[in-house]
Please model this.
Amino acid sequence: MAMTIHIDIVSAEGAIHSGHAEMVYAPGVMGELGIAPRHTPLVTHLKPGDVRVDTGKEMLHFYVSGGILEVQPHVVTVLADTAIRATDLDEAAAIEAKRKAEEALAGQKEAFEYAKAQAELAEAVAQLRAIEKLRKIKKS
Amino acid sequence: MAGAKEIRTKIASIKNTQKITSAMEMVAAAKMRKAQDRKNATRPYADKMRNVIGHLYHAHPEYTHTFMKERDISRVGYIVISSDRGLCGGLNSNLFRKLTREIKKQQEAGIQVNFCIIGSKALGFFKRFGGKVLAQATHLGDAPRIEQLIGAVKVMLDAYEQGEIDRIYVAYNGFVNTMTQDPTIEQLVPIVGEADKELKHHWDYLYEPDSKEVLDGLLTRYIESLVYQSVVENGACEQSARMVAMKAATDNAGNLIDELQLVYNKARQAAITQEISEIVAGAAAV
Model:
């Protein structure tokens, strides 16, 4: 039997694949990598692309939109991103989150008043319930 | 039979409410299963990542990343995770109560507090509560995706890196079981407890492109995945809390209907008795 290497592909939202392979191909940032058993330990970022797993019988394909690859002599771990990442994209997302916070707290009264009113209502209901409970206890 | 009609309409209206609450209970029960599965699915990623970070840490004990360094605290950040919708019992208010106590303690110690909000309910709360909100992400839906959180988490991490915040906590509801949710506040950054892990092997890694960049990407993703995990866990809590709350509401409606039915029957009987006595009296008078 040919030598195999254990491969795990996981993303933040769930495990994608786990099994043995004779060879794993991955799109590293510095170029395509082919990983055979007893590969030297390595950590690298991945580019968006295809991770191919050669099990000896068939070739499995997994698309990753980036992530991190860790290689130990008998274990390969792909920490796959589910989102497309790039510095400027992340930056844009951060700015968006900030803007939303400012908007919600400063302007845009209507939508916000509703949420506030709701919160106040919930509190009032909770108080009423407490009073009711107290009354019941007093009665009995 | 004056009151009888009113009581009847009241019973009908409560029955309608009961139908709604029991439907919500069933929906929440179905969603809860999925939310729990989702929660369990996030575990392998974080575990694997923790392993890799542990290995890296051992390979390079002399290099400590900013995310691992403790420093003096003058301002802390809280990532507060709440549900987007209400009708889930005391889930959110329990968390906010715990958080308020914690914040008071911090403020008494002269530490300033900033927030990052995830979920509409927390937004409503902080509008009244006050406090500086750096970022928010709401309307994540039943199946939150990690890219919905990247922006908000990055704002906090950037603030941390620039020294505006010296520590980041995450506040969410921990899932104990269907009946119990545990409001939890955990320290997120600096990362704790990774360093002292015992490892059997350690490798001398090759890094591509270089160790700092790799570690950077790794730690950012790790923190994001922790926040994501908390969001998903909070989601499972939300559904189970809603299920329990709606079940209680349905039961209460049932009790109310029983009580009202009794009152209604009494009123009806009284009316009939009165009618009979009137007829008898009338007959006697003839």
Q: What stands out?
A: Chain A has two helices and seven strands.
